[in-house]
Amino acid sequence: MRVxxxxxxxxxxxxxxxxxxxxxxxxxVVDSFVNAKPSVVGRIEGITGQHLPVHAFDLTDKDxxxxxxxxxxxxxxxHFAGLKAVGESVAMPLEYYTNNxxxxxxxVRAMLRHDVRKLVFSSSATVYGTDQDxxxxxxxxxxxxxxxxxxxxxxxxxxxxxxxxxxxxxALLRYFNPVxxxxxxxxxEDPQGIPNNLVPYLAQVAVGRxxxxxxxxxxxxxRDGTGxxxxxxxxxxxxxxxxxxHRIGTMDEPVATWNLGTGRPTSVLEMVAAFGRAVGRExxxxxxxxxxxxxxxxxxxxxxxxxxxxWRATRSxxxxxxxxxxxxxxxxQGYPDA
Length: 338
Ligand code: UD1
Hints:
15 strands; 11 helices
């Protein structure tokens, strides 16, 4: 297939592009580069050995989106592009609603106009709101912050569009906590500024960019009192996108929803210990108060994806830490600017 990957220069997008090319698909990327460095493109090309065509614009630009679809044959779209920082979304709700909703509307409008029927959408466990423990796909969706609401709303928009045009084939993929990096250590997660998420923060402690990890609360009703999450290796997650892309062509219904997680929760302290094993020394941390908005436990019931996609996560938490550490050591400051 000829696959348009929006946000293909981002963390999950870049790993998925590599796997798409390896599977024999022809890939083109659209990315605004608001949260990705252009140097990722050369890294992807280094792994695949193929030129990657990249269109650098924001999908909220309807005219550019329309021109892209008018000038390129596209068989399917994987839509990663979007703003994704929870705290920032609370401070800047208008930007989040505008960017995330308008980009999806612009993309789907161009797809319909140019008869592109297949879409794989990046959703999140955040659509389960505060009910993320052992979540199954039929659980009621709601959110606790504007970022999460944009995912709930985009899912609803796509379900309504699928209901109105049953020839469409749309996969809604709900990710749990993606971590890890490509085994080459040449692509990985490169957060701008102070990392919000646990594993990128730990990686920066390990490489000496941060003094110690702040563990947000040890009084949760969990095994060791710290928050438990379903961390999934980004390579497993990318493989889930290919499985969904291949499956939707034979689906009976226009819209399907799949959780992508391991089903196994890991606590913050367990992750600190695992990352320490990868690095070969214990990493410093201190316990601080809970982070507002955090929940105790989040993990997937991934059985629907296993049954319907023939997909399951195969990589362990130790694999996730070893691969993150390889990437961080080789790229202590992330991707180069130029
Ligand atoms: C958050 C988002 C989620 C998003 C995900 C991306 C919510 C509420 N949160 O998930 O939507 O998809 O990021 O991966 O929707 N922790 C620390 N110290 C740190 C950082 C984190 O102790 O410096 C703890 C947190 O309290 C939590 C765990 O580590 O228990 C994981 O946190 P994080 O990596 O930020 O992910 P989530 O909050 O689960």
